[in-house]
Amino acid sequence: MLERLELEAFLVLAEELHFGRTAERLHVTTGRISQTIKKLERQVGAPLFERTSRAVRLTELGQRLRADLRPAYEQIGTGLEQAIIAARGITGTLKVGFSALWSGDLVVTAADLFRVRYPDCEVHIQEVQLGDPLGPLRAGELDLQLTEFPIDEPDITAGPVIFSEPRALMVPDRHPLARRETVSLEDLADVILLPMTGNIPDYWLDYHYPQRTPAGRPIPHGPPITYWQEVLSHIHVGKGVSVVAARGARYYARPGVAFVPFSDAPPIEYGLLWRKTGENTRIRAFIQIIHEIRRSVPREDEVRRHKSRMAGRRPPRPDEGRRPTS
């Protein structure tokens, strides 16, 4: 019979794939998590995780166990949350923000389900400008926000990553890079990168608009831009290039601008933010719905791995292996 800590430690570690973050989420020591997982593996009779000095991965048995345990655990959590909600009631107004349009799609979908479950609570949704990504949240204009990571601020709670997107480079369609299948981070040394400006943390800017390539070559920066639509106009007239989630090709497509996938850039991660002093039952209920929706959609990396396995079982089609343009 599983103890509660064994169940939670296994499922959280299966999500985080990091002992330190798992321990932090469960408010125990890293050693306690390690001991608990080892105990569970002895009980099962086989390893559930592959551990190296650089990474933690689920074994095939661990993946099956996660698939079997997760629904039951979520059902228990949902039942408890519903009981708490019924006892306290969820009323009032919840204000939710988003930055990227694809984040907005998820927020709107979650808000529709939230309104069905909690008809006595209103949900207001608004877009957050990248030039001031934390201002509305800090000012109390928003209760919750889905935005690009990293965010590391003392007054704001950054939840787990909800989803991630591969990166692409937006370039003028007449630029030589526009004819490439992919680009590299090293290519940024040969173009002018157009960064955002405003009330933005320096570490966020350094992550999304780096000053140097991985090899240490300086990356020329053009004039900073305040609003996203200006970026598209600057690229259209040949003032420079900019980095975007690859999905942006479907949302920001316009004449004169091409989207070229990166071959080596880390993905852009998106997560939920809320004020550390502002957490309440409305926020927790909305976060739960966000997680439910995301778990019902296959993760893109899992889809890619599945396609790769299937491709190995049959001869490739003539058009297979080409990188998508969006």
Automatic annotation (TrEMBL):
Chain intervals for the UniProt region annotation (Disordered): 299-326
Domain HTH lysR-type: 1-59
Family listed: Belongs to the LysR transcriptional regulatory family.
Name of one Pfam family that matches: LysR_substrate
Amino acid composition bias (Basic residues), ranges on this chain: 305-315
Keywords annotated in UniProt: DNA-binding, Transcription, Transcription regulation
Biased composition (Basic and acidic residues): 316-326
InterPro entries cross-referenced by the UniProt entry: LysR_HTH_N, LysR_subst-bd, WH-like_DNA-bd_sf, WH_DNA-bd_sf
Stated name of the protein: LysR family transcriptional regulator
Top-level lineage group: Bacteria
